[in-house]
Model the fold of this input.
Amino acid sequence: MENVIHLVLGKADPRRMNGVNRVVHYLASSQAEIGENVEVWGLANSLDHNYPTRPFTTRLFPQHKNFQIDTSLIDAIKKLASNTVVHFHGAFIPAFYRVAGLLKKKQIPFVLTPHGAYAKGAMEKKYAFKRSYIQLFENFILKNALCIQALSEEERDAVAQFSPKAKVQIIPNGQMIFDDLEGLPPVRANEGLVFGFCGRLDIRHKGLDILLEAFAKFIENGHKGKLELIGDGADRPKLEQMAEKLKIKEHTIFHGSQFGEDKFSLLKKMHAFVHPSRMEGFPTAVLEAAALGKPCITSNQTNINGYIKAYNAGLPLIENTADTLFRAMEYVVSLLPLGILQLKGHNARRMIVEEFTWSGIANQIGQMYRA
Done:
């Protein structure tokens, strides 16, 4: 059996809003549970091991600027056994280019999960720079990787555009299964349905302007309801101002960053989870909501709509616009008394159990290593 090393920026702390860190934590945990020899190597600003107890070894190395890597990391690579596989998480990280060169020289195989970094929406920002960076540096990783884990068909096609000969396999993110499933909460008198979002408060990336404008139309048209947002970010003040301007401030709650049971208790109170992102890899927040039995309203850019359709687990948006989302919210209201919304929530939970368990994803990743 090979030794598996996950290399990531940060400490793979599941309490962070950063989806990549959460994915690495749960993937490594599941691999350890099925008997893999797995470690996480983190490039971090702080070397304090201040994260929850975990079933795998974590080694931290100082993070340097640009293409510099610490001598401690170089020494650790030199000591790697020949039966090791290194799994890179993320893209456009100069240190990974340096590490990949050392691994190739030592004949240590490596794989890469870009986590949506090559998706069309993600590439729009600083496109010229990113395109040049791929040609000059990233292509070395793409061409020499044992395999590229794409989270979606869109990401697979993006990799093929940049590196046609790269070996790519589609394996989505996973999700832990919750035991205390409660289904949809009752609708409180005079309050209406609770629509929710969880993630980084980035207006452009997460489509939060679309969300607030759609909810404003929902309220304007005489519907009762609440919009609850879990998460934080630089755009929070702008969103709070937007809520006031749209006259939905009294109907909108900004919970800030929440973790663990605090976060899950808020998710449980929602009747529908909304994720109108303009760009994504494969959002873990949608998987968490679905695992809690929440029907999901999602944009095509989340890359999960194919699953939502197949399992009738929510309302996949045909267009990612405020008007389309508003119509979906109205439709949700009509589905509740018929029991159809509850059925969609049940189907969302079933979708997670059948498609996204971390143990199943870990086995697929293991097969990718050995292929």
Remarks:
- The chain has a mean pLDDT of 94.
- The chain has two domains: 3-174+357-370, 193-355.
